Every structure is written in C-alpha cells, then in structure tokens.
Amino acid sequence: MSRTAGVEVAPVNVSEPGGGTGDRVRPRYLRTKSIEQSIQDTEEPEHTLTRSLSVLDLTVFGVGVIIGTGIFVLTGSVAKEQAGPATALSFVAAGIACALAALCYAEFASTVPVAGSAYTFSYASLGELPAWIIGWDLVLEFALACAVVSVGWAGYIRSLLDNAGWQLPDALSGPEAAHGFSFDLLAFLLVLVITAILVFGMKLSARVTSAVVAIKVIVVLLVIIAGAFFIHPENYHPFVPEAQGSVSGSGLKAPLIQLMFGYEPTTFGLQGIFTGAAVVFFAFIGFDIVATAAEETRNPQRDMPRGILGSLLICTVLYVAVSIVVTGMQKYTKLSVDAPLADAFKATGHPFYAGLISFGAAVGLTTVSMILLLGQSRVFFAMSRDGLLPRVFSRVHPRYGTPYRSTIVLGVVIAVVAGFTSISELAALVNIGTLFAFVVVALGVIILRRTRPDLPRAFRTPWVPVLPILSVAASLWLMLNLPAETWVRFGVWMVIGLLVYVLYGRRHSRVSAAGTRTE
User: Fold this and answer.
1) Reported confidence tier of residue 35, pLDDT bands at 50, 70, 90
2) What is the per-residue DSSP string for 214-252?
3) Cβ neighbours of residue 204 closer than 8 Å, sequence gap 6 or more
4) 5 close to 299: Cβ distance less than 8 angstroms
5) Beta-strand pair 2-4/7-9
6) Residue 166 to residue 161: CA distance in whole angstroms
7) Could you list the residue ranges that cross the membrane (predicted)?
8) What pLDDT does 425 receive?
9) pLDDT at 501 over 90
10) CB burial readout 94-105, b (16+ within 10 A) else e
11) Span 176-191, pLDDT tens digits
12) Inter-axis angle of helices 484-500 and 128-163, to 10 degrees?
C-alpha cells in the first residue's frame, strides 16, 4: 500500500473501480478509472509532477485567471446594453451559478488530487468516452481562451506604445490592423515567454503570478476607491430599467433557446438581469483551472476547496464593486462599450485613472494567458498519461518536474494561432466549453456518491443531489442563451474529437488495455 499526498492507495485494477467487478460488464468505451489507480499513476517516476503549491498559490492562480478584461469592459457594456445599474445583480447571478459548480469542483479536486480537472473527474465517474469528450472540450476551451486573451493583451500594449509615441508596423500588429499579410508579433512573443516560465517550474510560475496579481488587484482597488468619490446617486435611478424589446438575432445568430422554444430574451427589466448574467459569465471563467493543479498541490485535500472557493468569492466581490462604481459615475445610457470604466473616468475629468486602467489590464492579462496555458497543458498531460494521446507528451522534465513536452508543443501552436488569427468571434466557444464541463462535473458528483460512498472526502458538496442538479440547470440555461452558431462550431469540434478517439485513443487507452488483460 502506498501513500500519496496524505491519501492511502491500495493497488486496485484500473478496470475495477473500488475493487469491484462492475466495469467488466461495461463496454470498453465506458470503463471507468478508479480513484486509487488515478492516484497511483501520479507516482510513476517519469510522469510525476512536483508538489509545491500552497493554498495562497492556488487562490492567486484563481484570482489571476478570473480577473481580466471582463472587469474593465463587461461591467460597462452589460450595463449599457442589458441590465443598467442592475448589472451588479447580473454579476451576483453569474457568481451564484459559478458557486454551485465550484462546490462540485471542490469535492472532486479534494477527493481526486490528480491533474486533469473535469477530465479526470469524468474518467472516475462516467467512463472513458465521456472523459475523452470533456478532455477534448477543455483542450479547445483553454487554447482558444489563451489565444484570445493574448491578442487582447497585445492590443493594450500597442495602445500604451502609441501613447508613448511608438508604433509597430501594421504588418506586425495583427489581422485587425492591416490588410493582406499580417502577424501579431506581441501576442506571439507573449505566449512564447509564458511557455518558457511554465517549463521552468510551477514555483517560478506561482511567484510571477503572485507579483502580477498583486499589481492587478491594487489597480482594481484604487479604481474602486477613487471612483467612489465621483459617484452621483441619481445615476442609479432607475436601478432596474424598464424592459425594452428583444436582443435576439436571426438564424444561427439567434440564441438556441429562441430557435427551440420561441423564447426571446429582452434587454433591461428582470429578464435583462439574467440575460446580462449569461454575458458576464465570461468574466468568471477560470476558477475551474485551479483544479488542474491538484497534483502539484502540497495538501490538496485541504487547500483545493479553499483555493477554488476563495478565488471565486474575492472576484465576485470585486466585480460587484466595480459595476456599482461605474454605473454610479456615469449614466448607464452614456457608457461606452469598448472601454467604459476608462471613459467614465475621462468623463469626470480624471484621465490619469484611464491610463492606470489600461496599465492594469495589460499587466493582468499576462497572468490570464499563463494560467490558461497551464490548465491546458495539465489536461493534455493527464490524457497523454492515460494513453488517450501519445504517451511521449506526459514525460516530465527531470530537473523542473513539469510536463515540458506538452507545454512547449501547445505553447508554440497557440503562439502561432494568436499571431495569425483574429478569433474574437470564437470567444463564445470558451463559454460553452466551460459550461459543458460544469454540467459533467456536477453529474459526476452525484454518480460517484452512489458508486463510491466509501471514498474519504475531505470536502463534501452540501445538499447532494439537489445542489448539483441546480448547478446543471443553471449551466444549461446559460448554454441555451448562447447563439446557435456557437453550438454548431462546438458540435464540429466534438465530431473531430470522436474521430481522434476512435482512430487513436481507444486503441492505446491504458484502462481498456488493462481491462482486456483481466478478462
């Protein structure tokens, strides 16, 4: 019997979770991987990550990836277009939906302290094919989000350079700045730099993230405190503006719920608050990435729940505070969409704070990109270690203890994508991918409570199965409010993933191979 991160691990065959024989009657593609075997796999010398993270590191990672452009942009755009001053309630609603999912993630991450997040949790509860689907989904989600954020970071840096009188040639400023050939050099270089930081070790990554997050949070707090002195109470009236027409599009641009049921979300009013919640949800994406670092946490049973829930609570409070400040400084009908917070300060005659906001956004997006790449490389690493992707990508560096091969390959691919592609229109794919993961994790909590009631759980999701069911319902509601074209693109990616699984993953799966040998 071995012991890993305070968890006793008994040798149990991968095809028989909990030591039972239930998986012998399952189809190969629905075989589950036992918790015990998942933890045992973390002890393989060439596939073992270094445990160096504390609860503070995890909380900083969570805050670092959650707080990005959303706090500077979405707060104003949603106020002007969907909810008015009640945008604060939209953030609360989205925060509650995320909290339901966070409670489910906290139980899984403390019970299964293994890299891979929702992929690993799905393998333990739903089976191999569902795990592959969610892993493939997360690979797209994190890659796309990292590329989008890197392009956004490059835009802020170019703006700061322009203010200083320096300009990059259009050909090196990205597709949106030039016709014909163009390459976003800044976005490309950012991804390469953060790739190198991640290869050199998690502790170095944590130190860089801590320093940058400290700067980012200080900037946000200064903006909140300074903005509070420029609030005009009359701007809050009416707090919940009267409902005004529809926000629906037509064809594939329309929300899926409209095409299915004829329901048309409205702007403003009570429905506008929840329509806004579906939009600001993008600003909360990231807390789930904390779970991907479970295998590199010194005391995951204690620290994972604290890191996940703590970072979400901190960011929700900051989001609500910023939304209250920005709608109090300037009437919601006059807010700009592109840079509402910065323009609100300009409107009050304080352009210094507008520059401070741009600086905070540029600094902050550095950590967002890095932690997104961290999350993707860990999911990729876990899938590779299970044989669903080539095992060569799950080798860890002999000195730094990081999955350097998968990190370098993914980093170079994302850098090229960020350099050549304008992909802002694909950002909704990040939302649907995250929500899909939330649904799977919530269902997994219910299933694992029934199939493995014997597992020691350092943190238990309260009110099971009611709370996970509410989490599923909230996530599905937000998914239905996304455009139909997002669902089509998501479906295409899933079909590609199924083909990869059939042609490679199913044949090389270590779980299926072990199950075949025991039959």
Assistant:
1) confident
2) HHHHHHHHHHHHHHHTT--GGGGSSSSPPP-SB---SGG
3) 197
4) yes
5) antiparallel
6) 5
7) 55-74, 86-108, 129-157, 177-200, 212-231, 268-287, 308-332, 352-375, 404-423, 429-448, 460-480, 486-504
8) 55
9) yes
10) bbebbbbbbbbb
11) 666 667 888 999 999 9
12) 120
List 173's β-bridge partners, or say none.
Answer: 184
Instruction: State whether residue 182 is helix, strand or coil.
Output: coil
pLDDT band, very low/low/confident/very high, at 250 (cuts 50, 70, 90): low
* Closest among 34, 39, 31 to 4, alpha carbons compared: 39
Rg (CA), the chain: 23
Alpha-carbon dihedral sign for residues 419, 422, 427, 429: negative
User: In this structure, are residues 112 and 124 in contact, taking their beta carbons and an 8 Å threshold?
Assistant: yes
Residue 476 has pLDDT above 90, yes or no: yes
Kindly indicate the confidence band of residue 314, based on its pLDDT and cuts at 50, 70 and 90: very high
Q: Which residues contact 380 (CB under 8 A, 6 or more apart)?
A: 139, 389, 393, 403, 406, 410
Backbone angles phi, psi at 478, to 5 degrees: -65, -35
- Residues 364 and 376 sit within 8 Å (Cβ to Cβ): no
- State the Cα–Cα distance between residues 401 and 277, nearest whole angstrom: 40
For the record, the structure tokens of 474 come out as 């909230």
The H or E element containing residue 3 is strand 2-4
| Phi/psi of residue 246, nearest 5 degrees | -110, 150
Q: What are phi and psi of 190, to 5 degrees?
A: -60, -45
Sign of torsion over alpha carbons 110, 411, 403, 116: positive
Angle between helices 466-480 and 87-111 (to 10 degrees): 130
Question: What is the structure's pLDDT at 246?
Answer: 63
Q: What number of residues does the chain have?
A: 519
Which phi and psi angles does 7 have, rounded to 5°?
Answer: -110, 125
User: What's the CA angle centered on 437, arms 435 and 438, to 5 degrees?
Assistant: 65
Is the link from the previous residue into 238 a cis peptide, with omega within 30 of 0? yes
Dump pLDDT digits (tens) for 117-171. 889 999 999 999 999 999 999 988 888 888 888 887 888 788 778 777 888 887 8
- Quick one: which of 121, 115, 116, 130 has its CA closest to 26? 130
